[in-house]
């Protein structure tokens, strides 16, 4: 029997997130075991009179490739993948790895090369040249990360992913307008006193068109404007390793000191290239149903009452000039049970302890976004 929640999700992805039109080519790229969703997506794409293409990838195979790959091999892989991507009008990426740490034992230099020569070139075509959306798929591994039973997590997953994103989209307009006229931002909290400018860098709302689940408004700091210190209280996975209590010190936009539960590994990533020590994104999370981190950035960066600050590559839509093969969303949660905190725009308090306090922004508080 077909799960109606799954059919609804597939329909939302095809008709709302990537808006498939007749004759368009759509690449379904699935990492892990997701046959039910892939089948539902194929049906929906055909229903929209599009042309589905499917790639199925096993994360263990990716690990084996990364372990002994060569530069020549990766460049050829990137050439092949980018050629395919340029023929696609839309992209739906499904991530369902059974083990979040599958890549943990790949040497850092190998992983960096894999990202720089293969993944980043493909991403640089996919993001600007296709209508794309990326999502996770529920499995026991994700349930473990969320500290839930498999059944409870599945119910949570479909509640979050089938949220009314059109309602969220409309509610975000006021925050976008405010950010677009803001110059100075200050963020304070336990271990954090950070200031930077976002002047003349566009704010972009994310309400179900690029990520599922979704729920953030992002921009980028003026590259050299970031000053102060930030301590992230949410765990932050990267390349198969979970970092805890990442603390970053900034001078003139650059990370000059970085510590965590593995400081050496952290700094090795930040030394990937020059841009990895500068910030490419600042975003505010507002999804009412995502309350706690589960070591999966597609969920964690949208946590209610959170923000994230991203070393590495900026987005074209909120361009601050920073270029890097790294894009690492690091999350801080400011609700009271996580230590609280404040966000100020041009010396005006806009959010305190995870709740918006300006009247025009209260529509983004969780009781106003949930069903």
UniProtKB/TrEMBL annotation:
GO terms for biological process: proteolysis. Transmembrane segments: none annotated. One of its GO terms (molecular function) is metallopeptidase activity. It comes from the Bacteria. Keywords: Aminopeptidase, Hydrolase, Metal-binding, Metalloprotease, Protease. Pfam families: Peptidase_M29. Its cofactor is Mg(2+); Co(2+); Zn(2+). Belongs to the peptidase M29 family. PANTHER family: AMINOPEPTIDASE (PTHR34448), BLL6088 PROTEIN (PTHR34448:SF1). This is Aminopeptidase. It comes from Brevibacillus composti.
